[in-house]
Amino acid sequence: MYRYEDLREVHLELTTRCNAACPQCPRNLSGGPVNPALPLSELTLEDVRAIFPGELVARLRKIYACGNYGDPMVARDTLPIFEHLRSQSAGLELGMFTNGSGRTPSFWADLAKVVTYVRFSIDGLEDTNHLYRRGTQWARIVEAATAFIAAGGRAEWDFIVFKHNEHQVDEARELAQKLGFERFFLKKTSRFFAAGNVSGRRVLDRDGAPAYMIEEPTGDRFKNPAVVRLTQLGRFTDYQAETEIACKAVQHSRLYVSAEGLVFPCCWTGALYPPGRPAGTAQIWDLVRRLPEGKASLDARTTPIRDIVEGPFFQTLVPEGWPKRSVADGRLEPCIRACGGTDTHAAQYGASLL
Fold first, then answer.
1. What is the reported pLDDT for 230?
2. Contact predicate 242/206, CB 8 Å
3. What distance in Å separates the CA atoms of residue 343 and residue 24, rounded to the nearest whole number?
4. Parallel, antiparallel, or unpaired: how do β-strands 254-257 and 263-264 relate?
5. Which residues contact 329 (CB under 8 A, 6 or more apart)?
6. What is the secondary structure of 191-208 as a DSSP string?
7. Which region, left, alpha or beta, applies to residue 266 given φ > 0 means left and ψ of -120 to 50 means alpha?
8. What mean pLDDT, rounded, does the chain reach?
C-alpha cells in the first residue's frame, strides 16, 4: 500500500514542451503534428517550492526530471529548480534526461555544478541521430555534452537501437569514451510491440504526410528479450489476466509528478494524453472522474502531496484494479504493462558498455 512516510523517490516532469519530434513519442503524431489532446504545461520554480516542502525534500534520496511528453532542458526554470532542490538537500541524487540539443554551453556548465548526472538520449551518430530525434542538431548535442563534462558533470548516453543505426553501436561507444561519458547504455526498444507487434512505423512530416520508415533492429542482441517472450505467448489476453501485478511505485517508494502538477503512482498511470486514447488511458480517466474534483484532486500545487497519496486515488481506486480478472473487467492495463511479470520497459536496459 502507498504510504507518504515511505516516499523516497520522485519522477518529475517539468514541461510538456519539447524541441524534438520523435516518431514513437506520444507528444506528436508519428513524428509529425503535435498531439492535439496534449495541454502545453510547465512547472515554475514557485510551483516546485509549493509542491515539495523542505521536510519532504530532506528525506528523499532521488528526484529525476524526465516525463512522458517534454524535455526538461526546454523548461524556463530548470536550472533554478535544480539549484533550489540542491539547496534543500546536499545529498539528494538529482538527475535529468534530455536530447541535449539546446541551451547554451554556460547552462550546461552551471547544471554540472548542481545535478548528480545527465542522461543524454542520442540514437546514433551525426548522419542517423536525427532520423529518430527529429528536429535536433548534432553540433548542439556535442557542444552541450562537452560543456557539461568539462565542468565536471557526470554524463551518460542512452542509444535506442533501430535498423538504421545498429551498425553504429561500436563507433558511438568509442565516441562516448572519447568525449568523457561515464556510462553508455543500449536501449532495446519495446515500442514496436506496444504499437501492435509490428516491425516498423511510418514517420510523418509536420503536415502529416508520410516521410520515411523507422524499423526495429535486425540483430538478435539488440532485440528486447521481454518482447521476444511475450510474442511467443499463445494469447496476450491470457497473459493480461493471469500475470501478477507487483507495483514498482510501492516497492521503490516513489511517485510521479506531471507538468500539470498532477500526482500519480508512476508515469504509466500519469500518461493521460497519448494519441488514439488506448484502453489503459480510458481506464485511468474513469478513475480520475470518480474523484471529488476530478483531475484537480491530484494537483499538488493546491493540495499537499500527503493528502493526495492518502486519498482515494492511491489508496483504493488504483489498487482495486490489480486483482480484477481482465482488462474489460477493470484490470488496469498500465499496471499490467509496467508492473506485470514480464517487464518490457526494464528489459530495454543492460549493463553499461563503458
1. 87
2. no
3. 19
4. antiparallel
5. none
6. HHHHTTS-SEEEEE-TTS
7. beta
8. 95
Q: Give the domain extent around 66.
A: 4-188+249-322
Per the listing, cell 530548470 goes with: 78
Cα separation, 96 vs 116, in Å, equals 9
Angle at 1 between CA 272 and CA 59, to 5 degrees: 85
Q: CA-to-CA distance for 234 and 47, rounded, in angstroms?
A: 48
In a domain, 118, yes or no: yes
pTM for this prediction: 0.95
**φ/ψ (deg, to 5) at 349:** -110, 145
**How far is the C-alpha of 140 from the C-alpha of 137, rounded, in Å?**
6
**Cα–Cα distance, 70 to 42 (Å, whole number):** 9
Domain annotation covers residue 99: yes
180: CATH: 3.20.20.70
Are the C-beta atoms of 11 and 119 separated by less than 8 Å? Answer: no
Gap between the Cα atoms of 323 and 303, Å rounded: 29
Residue 342 lies in a domain: no
Distance, C-alpha 307 to centroid of its chain:
25
3-class SS of residue 148? helix
The answer to whether residue 339 sits within a structural domain is: no
Average pLDDT over residues 117-140: 98
**Interatomic CA distance for residues 81 and 68, integer angstroms:** 19
Segment 331-335 mean pLDDT: 94
- Specify the 3-state DSSP secondary structure of 133: coil
Cβ atoms of 335 and 245 closer than 8 Å: yes
Cβ atoms of 57 and 92 closer than 8 Å: yes
Are the C-beta atoms of 69 and 26 separated by less than 8 Å?
yes
Work out the pLDDT band at 118, boundaries 50, 70, 90: very high
> What is the tally of structural domains in the chain?
1
Phi and psi for 157 in degrees, rounded to 5?
-125, 125
- Are 244 and 340 in contact by the 8 Å Cβ rule? The answer is yes
Closest CA to 192 of 231, 141, 233: 231
Angle at the Cα of 236 from the Cα atoms of 233 and 237, rounded to 5 degrees: 140
